[in-house]
Write a structure and sequence with these properties.
Strand content: 15-25%
Oligomer: single chain
Shape: globular
CATH topology: TIM Barrel
CATH architecture: Alpha-Beta Barrel
Structural class: alpha/beta
Strand order of the largest sheet: 1-2-3-5-8-9-10-12
CATH superfamily: Luciferase-like domain
Number of strands: 12
Distance between the termini: 6 Å
């Protein structure tokens, strides 16, 4: 079972805050450090000192870490044009020595689009654009050096692109797709995803959605086992009930709710909870949403007392 630390820096974090978490993640032996890709806080957080750009952050971390995988859950297709985005991700992959993973979604948060002058199309158009971007980005990465790439879609046209630079990973960094859409999301995952992720849901919902992805892959002749299954869950792990309650309070969550919907409790409780998820859903990876970025102790606690029991 891979354990990955997942952060939400739009809630309030500087690059230096993220660097501390990423270095603690690497030192503790986790598989990866991931971050969200948002430009505006959510809920009651003040968001200070302001947003950090996901791919600029990951470029910096690529040079200041050496082992952990680095990626986004998830980059929004509404934020960047596909050609320049393919260049940015490929460059960060080179800068990291081939440690990037590309989480990619259609975009959804209307308030951040309004706040920063970004266009959020209606749902159908948004998903049409997202599908074209997936095809373009992966197409650019996989075009052989010396060849060119062209694409003519409803929303994007590329003509004789040199399709450079190439990522360090060949033929491309792993692509992560997720979400609860019942038709188009599984179909796109079947075509493009190396991993399918379900964030902040229950096991029964996850089972049903993983089954849709599996069916969509089989329909196009792809082995469903090629698509890794993962979930993202908020954490609140403590050595005592008091420590669990304190961690829940800091992030504004009720302890009982956090136990029911996340990974909260003692290390032994969390080991059991992850085991239940694995048995019910077939996941082999969990993204641990760390909302208090000052809580490096929780990173170390999970690495020391949870991770060794999941092998």
């Amino acid at each position: 079972m891979d354990l990955r630390i997942f952060t939400e820096p739009q809630q309030g974090a500087s690059y230096d805050d993220l660097l501390r978490v990423a270095k603690a993640t690497e030192a503790a032996g986790y598989d990866a450090f991931f971050r969200s890709d948002h430009y505006l806080k959510m809920g009651s957080a003040d968001g200070l000192p302001g947003p950090t750009d996901a791919w600029i952050t990951l470029a910096g971390l690529a040079r200041e870490t050496s082992r952990i995988r680095l990626g986004t859950l998830v980059t929004a297709a509404t934020f960047r044009h596909p050609g320049p985005l393919a260049i940015s991700v490929a460059q960060v992959d080179q800068m990291s020595g081939g440690r990037v993973e590309f989480g990619f979604g259609a975009g959804w948060y209307d308030a951040e689009h309004a706040a920063y002058g970004l266009t959020l199309p209606p749902p159908k158009e948004r998903f049409d654009r997202y599908a074209e971007q997936l095809e373009i980005i992966t197409g650019l990465w996989k075009t052989p050096v010396g060849s060119t790439y062209s694409f003519a879609g409803e929303h994007y046209t590329l003509s004789e692109s040199p399709a450079l630079p190439k990522p360090a990973q060949s033929p491309a960094p792993p692509v992560i797709i997720g979400g609860a859409g019942k038709k188009r999301t599984p179909a796109l995952a079947a075509r493009f995803a190396d991993e399918f992720n379900l964030p902040f849901t229950d096991a029964e919902t996850a089972v049903a959605q993983f089954a849709r992805v599996e069916a969509a892959a089989a329909e196009i002749g792809r082995d469903p086992k090629e698509i890794l299954r993962s979930v993202a869950l908020v954490i609140g792990v403590g050595r005592s009930d008091a420590e669990v309650a304190q961690r829940a309070s800091v992030i504004g969550r009720d302890v009982d709710e956090l136990r029911a919907n996340g990974l909260a409790g003692s290390p032994a409780e969390v080991v059991d909870r992850i085991g239940q998820w694995r048995e019910k859903t077939g996941i082999t990876r969990a993204y641990l949403q760390l909302l208090d970025l000052s809580d490096l102790d929780q990173i170390e606690l999970i690495a020391a007392e949870v991770a060794p029991q999941l092998d």
